[in-house]
Amino acid sequence: MKTLLTLALAATALTSAAGAAELQSFRIEKGRYQAVLGDCMACHTKPGGALFAGGEPLATPFGTLVPPNITPDSETGIGDWTKAEFRDALKNGVGKDGKHLYPAMPYPAYHLMPDEDIDDLWTYLQTVPPVHDAVEANQLPFPFNQRFVMRGWNLVNFDPKPFEADPKQSAEWNRGAYLVQGPGHCGTCHTPKTMLGADETDAALQGATLQGWFAPNITGEKAVGLGDWSKEDIVAYLKTGSNGHAIAAGPMVEAIQDSTSLMKDEDLQAIATYLLSVKSDSRSNAPKPLAADDARMTGGDELYRVNCSACHGLDGKGAEHLFPALAASAAVQQDDPSTLVNVVLAGAQGPHTKDRPTTPAMPSFAWRLNDDQIADVLTYVRNSWGNAAAPVSADAVSDQRDGD
């Protein structure tokens, strides 16, 4: 009898242990997906570096920050943090020992995440191989390097309310709103900032300059936003890095490779549904295209034919998934031409994704065209084939060439 009881108790213990292991595995997988939704890799992993061991310097208007090591290394990572400290960092911007974080770590967006999702992310990060790599995250000049100043910033700019679903909208719309506003933190790049570095909430997702690139308008506005894209177009872009309208470049390449291309299809569809519903009127006084006989247009036309038309076509329609269309392009017509200037000066390489592994590329023209020529060809592109946007100045090109 005792033997049978002992066996029964052992079987119960094994069953309980198996159930606990299964639950732990489930939470780790959920946490891994939270890391995908939050695009943690893009900031916290250097190209070719160890996973989450620290990222490349991030230039901000206030100075340089470096995304820190978030592996479970006890000395240089978060190995000696508690789950509560980790949750406080993501939701309130306060890390270990009460150290205030800067909003480059987007806690103003992450605070919308439920505690359970953050705890799952914590559980996943504990499974990442620890890497001993000390990172000096705060490289800001005085007085911005004094973290206590963030107390005042938070009082003025941070309202830690939980996400509230809109009962008038569908479940898909609400999921998309949560992903865009919360873990996806799209506004961190795509929303213009105040002088203090906070989001201009009345211009949400209408485009902003970031490290010399312009993260474009991603509202449902036509011409400069996504209003001319279908839901399927947005899903394809986020999943593969290209569609019939655009090919990702600059920081968006990492966001697609490390985050959106790995998201569930239903989450991509929810994001698309939400973005198309966001309305803006950033161009209430839409610009008129320059006259065809303007000297910048005639000069730009000749430069375009010689340097650009072989890939993008004389009609500006490009070749789908290889050379982005320039005609009627929202990316081309943004108020800030920084991204266009960067692409011409430095070239660009599209994302490498599972569904589209071939990465389209554009060579640098910095060696071939001077500042005036780049300004003219971009002015021509921004005012041809249905486009209308302000001319590009040679000074703007010169500034970006010099790294200003």
TrEMBL record:
GO terms for molecular function: electron transfer activity; heme binding; iron ion binding; oxidoreductase activity, acting on CH-OH group of donors. Pfam families: Cytochrom_C. This is C-type cytochrome. Heme c 1 binds at C40, C43, H44. Gene3D superfamilies: Cytochrome c-like domain (1.10.760.10). Heme c 2 binds at C186, C189, H190. It comes from Jiella endophytica. Its cofactor is heme c. The keyword Cytoplasm does not apply. Heme c 3 binds at C308, C311, H312.
